[in-house]
């Protein structure tokens, strides 16, 4: 019996980290299957249809979540609205918009600053502190991700050209960091799946007016089987599955620890490109990947001392 309890305890300890690694895998697949579709569908159209398909898939649960937690929603409506705006309506819309103006390399480089931005926000908002071990871990993971992104050629940084798309991506990165920190800080007392369903139900209508405006300016797009498959993938995995795993990981570890797993995304994207795109394994995969994993191990305790506030009972 004690062995069973020990194995259960071990699973629950590592489950948040497995969930965050799964999030990075889905994000990597997102980058892989969405490559080359920037010209096929406008950014807000992609964002809207992504969340629309996701909402249709779980529509019965959205209605149930609103009815089941209506009292809590009334109590925390402002905070829930902010989370829906940041996490659902804004982040991916800005991400897809940035891809219209800048390169995939620039997007990945800007996004590699996500853990740093999250840590900077977590310090004043959550009272988080960074010790030497975790600081070294953050540095290792950042340098490892940078090495993979640049294909082992640091000199490639010198040839980068920054543009408006990079500023849009930087705004998206800060918004995702703020979403993660506020999700932990506010600790809204609604179970993870139900909270996601509520955020989706509120966030999707927020995108609609901007999508309509984009459609009026740019026009529509042509449907194809490939585009439908891409939208289905991003609706199920980077949307539904990744958000649930990310939210779980953030609440069970810390926003800063969760953000570090974003460094796995360029590594996993590169590794997935080997079987699916016929690319070849290179030494920078091993070197950069080793540095990322070492950084994650060193930083695994970062933010554990920061506990989400216990919601006060209603009187």
UniProtKB/TrEMBL annotation:
Q: How does it sit in the membrane?
A: Multi-pass membrane protein
Please give the superkingdom of this protein's source: Bacteria
Places the protein is found: Cell membrane
EamA domain segment(s): 17-149, 165-298
Pfam families noted in UniProt:
EamA
Can you list the GO cellular component terms from the UniProt entry?
plasma membrane
Key words of the record: Cell membrane, Membrane, Transmembrane, Transmembrane helix
Q: Does the keyword Cell membrane apply?
A: yes
Name by which UniProt lists this protein: Permease of the drug/metabolite transporter (DMT) superfamily
Protein's organism: Hahella chejuensis (strain KCTC 2396)
